[in-house]
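DATA CLASS: polypeptide
GOAL: derive structure tokens

***
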Amino acid sequence: MIRLSWFNVTSLTLGFAFLYLPMLLLIIYSFNESQLVTVWAGFSTKWYGELLTNESYLDAAWVTLRVALVSSTIATILGTMAALVLIRAGRFIGRTLFSGMIYAPLVMPEVITGLSLLLLFIGIGLDRGVVTIILAHTTFSMCFVSVVVSSRLMTFDKSLEEAALDLGCSPFQAFRLVTLPIIAPSVISGWLLAFTLSLDDLVIASFAAGPSATTLPIKVWSSIRLGVSPEINALSTILIGIVAVGVISASLISKRTMLRQMAEEQAAERA
């Protein structure tokens, strides 16, 4: 049994308070009657109603959701293909360069990535909008997908795939029926990571977005520069609630899956 000292308890308490106390205050003031976010004037939910009727926020949220869904899907496909090339292709001409191009966006400042993409779009004459945001988010998020899938492929047992080939499967069938189901958890994790990065991105989207397309982070940032409004508190509270529900649901599903697997293993041992 691990015993926590007073120092550890105090450090954990202060750390969690530093992280989550501002969120708690934000949630509380989202139900504030007053238009001043720092002055409490009574309980009210009117700002949630104002938020649901604010077309600019709704349009920005819809653009953000579309960009995240499309870019994360494309990034997952390309990132998985890149991981397969890195792990399965062996040595080939340009492997070092290819590997460096995969890992470079992970450590490169987002300002440089956004500026280079902006110059590219201007150079080829592509008007900035939803398409350019999707291309920009796909460019930097596919690298994260590649790293996640590569880590799973490095521990993959190739004998399973070889057995499928010996039984008459084509390479594509062996990948689809054997390899893909086994690495599916890492592919899904990569998609979720790319989706989250796209939803959260502000810097790169600010370079790739145009007047015809504004993402929700850009909208919130531009609104905060003019002063924090209670609608932003309501929006942030909704996002916190969605994330909390998602995390709790994923934890419950993971726990049930683990318990089911343990029960199946115990049943197999008894049989």
